[in-house]
Design a protein that fits this description.
By secondary structure, the protein is mainly α. Helix content is 69%, strand content 0%.
Length: 137
């Protein structure tokens, strides 16, 4: 299974969709979704990625990164997304974090680190955020 296939399957299952439901919601054939998830289509067309992004609740640019269409090492967001692309939960968390201005300096500092270090840092931030959310409840 390709990275993009695995990623889409995990997102789909997290949403509780069958392949048929995702096909209906996205306008992409069930057969095509099956091919992507099974790795028969290692690099789906960008139009297909755009169509399935919305029902999966992810930005289509995230799917571009995971599929390998976007890999700009100078782009902080792209570098970090590339480092965590195999972990849908971290990627979803990262997408939420990019909206926060107070973390922009941190993002600039980590972009030159190895992928595993970036992944570890994002996990730590997520742990802190999760603990703060529990304390607020």
């Amino acid at each position: 299974m390709s990275n993009i296939g695995k990623f889409i399957k995990e997102l789909r299952e997290k949403k509780g969709f069958s392949q048929r439901q995702l096909a209906y919601l996205s306008g992409v054939s069930n057969t095509e979704i099956s091919r992507i998830e099974n790795g028969e289509r290692k690099k789906p067309d960008i139009e297909i990625l755009q169509k399935i992004a919305r029902p999966l609740g992810v930005n289509y640019k995230t799917l571009y990164v995971v599929a390998g269409y976007v890999k700009n090492e100078d782009n902080i967001d792209g570098k970090i997304k590339s480092a965590i692309s195999d972990d849908p939960e971290l990627l979803e968390f990262w997408n939420e974090m990019t909206e926060r201005d107070n973390l922009q300096i941190l993002f600039k500092q980590v972009k030159d680190l190895p992928d595993e270090s970036i992944k570890r840092i994002i996990r730590y931030i997520k742990i802190v955020e999760d603990e703060e959310a529990l304390e607020d409840n």
